[in-house]
Write a sequence for this structure.
């Protein structure tokens, strides 16, 4: 298991470099995909079957959350970025069987390393709790006789963002000359309700999720957030 994670980390490092937030986020996602391909090769993957829809299971992993995708811009021409603010959260998810192939899959994502605010003004941390219902639409074996499963999911979610300001001052051009501005200090938090849509792929005891989170329909601020997660099955019980 550690060897698989090591290969994924080396693949991640090889594509992640300096540049804009959009390029870094794309590099992180590419690294996750490469880590999955390398780590789940026939020589590395275990022969243990994927989680059955009638089983309880616990997964632990990590991934990339792109906050405000297709909403923010870093271009002088105003072109929106595919990726927004990137976060690298841990992922903890528990699957509970229901009926007819359905499962309740509560999940917690949290960023332990904060993202940097613009101009070094502070750090931003996120916590994301979702309560999706998942439905398996395919379960079988691939050409290497490895257990494969596809499922889709939907459900409500709660997002919390914590901003930790460093305070102090910064000198910026206000259009007519240089002026000193005060940076915010202290800690502030904001919460919002989201609706989760996702597609999951499992290969033996590994799982990859690709998800879209939308602001609650009644919200005045409509944005979308992309998530890419890679997890490992720690425990299963029939």
């Amino acid at each position: 298991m550690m060897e698989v994670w090591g290969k994924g980390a080396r693949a991640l490092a090889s594509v992640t470099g300096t540049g804009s937030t959009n390029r870094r986020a794309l590099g992180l996602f590419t690294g996750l995909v490469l880590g999955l391909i390398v780590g789940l090769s026939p020589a590395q993957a275990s022969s243990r079957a994927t989680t059955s829809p009638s089983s309880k299971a616990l997964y632990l992993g990590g991934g990339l959350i792109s906050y405000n995708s297709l909403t923010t811009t870093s271009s002088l021409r105003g072109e929106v970025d595919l990726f927004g603010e990137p976060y690298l959260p841990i992922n903890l998810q528990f699957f509970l069987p229901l009926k007819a192939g359905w499962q309740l899959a509560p999940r917690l994502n949290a960023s332990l390393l904060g993202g940097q605010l613009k101009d070094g003004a502070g750090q931003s941390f996120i916590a994301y709790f979702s309560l999706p219902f998942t439905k398996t639409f395919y379960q079988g074996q691939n050409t290497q006789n490895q257990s494969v499963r596809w499922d889709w999911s939907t459900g409500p979610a709660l997002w919390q963002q914590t901003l930790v300001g460093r305070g102090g001052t910064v000198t910026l051009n206000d259009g007519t000359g240089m002026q000193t501005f005060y940076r915010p200090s202290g800690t502030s938090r904001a919460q919002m309700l989201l609706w989760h849509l996702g597609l999951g792929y499992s290969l033996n005891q590994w799982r990859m999720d690709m998800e879209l989170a939308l602001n609650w329909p009644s919200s005045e601020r409509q944005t979308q957030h992309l998530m890419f997660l890679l997890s490992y099955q720690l425990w299963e019980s029939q």
About this structure: The domain at 2-46+57-237 is CATH 2.40.160.20 (Porin). DSSP finds two helices and 14 strands in the chain.
